[in-house]
Each structure stands twice: as C-alpha cells, then as structure tokens.
Amino acid sequence: MSHLRKLLEKYYNAPEIYQAGRYWKTYEQQIIQEIESADINQLRSGDYPIFGTFGFTESVYNYHPKMPIHQKVARKIIRKLFVTNRAILPYSLKLEDIREMAYNYCVINGELANFKSISEIETSTFGNPADLFEINGKKYTMQFLNFYIRLCFAQKHMKLQGNETIVELGSGSGFQTAVMKKVFPDLTILCFDLPHPLFLCEHYLSESLGEGNIVKSTKTIDWTNLSGLEKGKVTMLGNWQFPLLENLKFDIFWNAASFGEMEPHIVKNYLSFVTNSCKHIYLLQARKGKESTQSSGVVTPITFDDYNKMLNMFSLIKETDAHEAHRKMSQSGGYFQAVWSRK
Ligand SMILES: C[S@@+](CC[C@H](N)C(=O)[O-])C[C@H]1O[C@@H](n2cnc3c(N)ncnc32)[C@H](O)[C@@H]1O
Predict the structure, then answer these.
(1) Which H/E stretch holds residue 183?
(2) Is the Cβ–Cβ distance between 302 and 23 less than 8 Å?
(3) 76/83 Cα distance (integer angstroms)
(4) pLDDT, tens only, 35-82
(5) What is the DSSP string of 6-18?
(6) Planar angle of CA 188, 190, 194, nearest 5 degrees
(7) Boundaries of every domain in the chain
C-alpha cells in the first residue's frame, strides 16, 4: 500500500493539467479508501462496485451497493428461480443463450479481422469474476468478450502485424491490454493512468499475463526518460509521466471511455504528446459527450466532432456506433468507436 501512497504523492505534485477533471475527482477519494481495505483477490467479484468506474464490472446483475443484504439475497433467489434458469425473456432467451450469442459474435468478428479466434484465448480468473462462464472448455466473462470486440474493430482498420508499440491512456482495469497481449503476445504496450486505477491494473495484469510480462510502476515511478522500455512487455506509467512520450515513435494511441471524462484542455494536452508520433489513433467515447450539470459530471462535454477537429492532421478511416459483444453501447446517449490514420 505504501507504493500507492508514493504514486499519489507524485501525482499530487504534478502540474494541474495532470490532475483529474471534475468528473473523476468525485470518485478519487472513494476509490483510494476502498483500495486500502479491499481484498484484491475479490477485485472482480462485484463486492467493490466503485472499481466498476474504471472497468472492473463483471457482475451479471448489478446490485446497488447500498441495498440491504436481505434484499440482495431475495433478489438473487428470485433471479435464480425465475430469470436465470427460466425462459421468460423475449424469444425464450436464457442467460446462457446471451453468452453464446456474444461468443459467436466474437467468433465471426475474429474471422473478419483475420486474427486469433476467441476460441484460442481465455480470461484469467484472478479477482474472482462474478460473471465467469465456460464455452468449449475456455473461460470467459462478458467484459472479456467486449474488449475482444473492440480489438476486432481496430484490427479491421489498422491491420496490426503483432509487433507494434501501443500507448494506452486510461487503461482502467487493463482488460484491453490483457486481450491485446493474448491475441498478439509480442506487442509492446505502455499503460498510462491515474495512480489508483494504475495500482489495481498492474495487480490484475501481473496475474493475468504473468509478472514477467509487466514492467511495474514500482520500477518506472522515477523514470525521466523511456530508455528502460522493454520490447514485448507491458510498461505501467503514471498519467503525469505522459510527457516522457515526447521523443518516442510508436504505432497506435488508444483511449477508450476516458477522454470523455476529462475536460477539453486536458485532452488537448495529452494529444499534443501523441499526434506527432503515432500512426493510428483508436477512440471509443460518448458521441455527444459525458453527462454534465451545473455541479457534476464534466464541465464541458466533448463530442465526436470535437475529437475529429482535434485530429485534423489525421484521416478518419472508420467511425461506427460502438457495440459490445451482446449489445449496443447506449449509456450516456451512445458511444462511437473510430480509427484515424496519419495523412
Ligand atoms: C471509465 S474508465 C475506462 C477504462 C478503460 N479504458 C475501459 O474502457 O474500460 C476511465 C479511465 O480514464 C482514466 N482517467 C480519467 N481522467 C483522467 C485524466 N485526467 N488523466 C488520465 N486518465 C484519466 C481513469 O483513471 C480510468 O482509468
């Protein structure tokens, strides 16, 4: 835990532009407190709903964190008796049908993307995911399938060879990085994030991909340049270390469900370190911007058109509504995913 405190100290001492915007500041203290008392082995069990704010959401049903225990139990029993095992959904659907359809959607998308099939990879069980299921002897969660679908979209338009260098900002849980490395084991990936998600993300990735594949923030925390980068590994860095990218040429910049939670000047600052150095950019964001009221959410929502303008030195290759493996992403009024390539 003292390492989390060291990361936090570096972050708080960093320039204002690297501090979270209003949307994220709301969660910061809650997440830090929860990490301090959490059992990391139960990270994905649904016991810590606040970790869902950055991706550790792997419950089939979402229970409100403040719901009394007897209500939770009653709901579980009702669901088990009347929903999970009975065909009461439209077209006689059951939970396993939804999972199988999502899996098959991944199979087809993997074929179209022409890379490793979902049937050849599986999720780690670290963190005790509540949504764990098996298909053809391999373990999955819906989230694992969702991140595979994102990579399929990216692959169709970027045609990765498997030896590229990818920079991800706002990696959250690290699920995307885990899927990328399972599909393309030789990728070099740099994960940047705020200190608290970074701390849990590197725990998860060390378990999911193996300690040997991760260069942890305990090692990178004092880096003043990227000369220590190891090819083929995942390197964990604090978001305030983003300027270290200044002289790095890399292939892809990746940001999913993260820029939308920042203010435009914060996004512009991050982009200023990548737009001169990468070949492709992948974004998945709320199309009309994230929620915003007088006192909560983002101060200034960023829309698809804003991103497109910020990336005017790139060509927009493809843009679609974002889909998960089992549904359209309709939260916050809908998400887009898009790939831009250098002109
Ligand atoms: C909703 S989560 C998305 C995580 C992951 N990319 C995904 O798709 O599940 C938002 C992520 O953006 C990060 N984030 C928010 N504000 C940030 C900022 N100002 N600088 C860097 N990262 C930020 C959060 O720490 C978190 O990891």
Answers:
(1) helix 175-183
(2) no
(3) 10
(4) 999 999 999 999 999 999 999 989 888 666 566 777 777 777 766 666
(5) HHHHHHHTS-GGG
(6) 160
(7) 161-342
* Cβ atoms of residues 135 and 100 within 8 Å: yes
Average pLDDT over residues 230-235: 98
Ligand 1 centroid to residue 194 C-alpha, Å:
7
| Cross-strand pairs, 283 | 255, 338
Hey, what are 53's tokens? 């704010």
Return d(Cα 284, Cα 322) in angstroms, integer.
Answer: 7
What gap in Å lies between CA 162 and CA 188, rounded to an integer? 9
Alpha-helix runs per DSSP H in 135-239: 142-158, 175-183, 195-209, 217-220
Is residue 189 scored above 70 in pLDDT? yes
Beta bridge partners of 80: none
Strand 335-342 and strand 314-321: the pairing is antiparallel
Q: Does pTM surpass 0.90?
A: yes
Answer positive or negative: Cα dihedral of 88, 89, 95, 99: positive
Question: For ligand 1, which residues put their CB under 6 angstroms from it?
Answer: 20-21, 24, 54-55, 169-172, 193-194, 197, 239, 256-258, 261-262, 266
Closest CA to 125 of 52, 42, 215, 59: 42
Please tell us whether the domain made up of 161-342 is placed in CATH 1.10.3720.10: no
How does pLDDT run across 245-298, given as a tens digit for each residue? Answer: 999 999 999 999 999 999 999 999 999 999 999 999 999 999 999 999 999 999
Contact 106, 145 (CB under 8 A): yes
Tokens of residue 17, six digits: 């532009």
Mutation pick for ligand 1 pocket among 51, 166, 258 (CB with most ligand atoms within 8 Å): 258
pLDDT tens, 124-182? 999 999 999 999 999 999 999 999 999 999 999 999 999 999 999 999 999 999 999 99
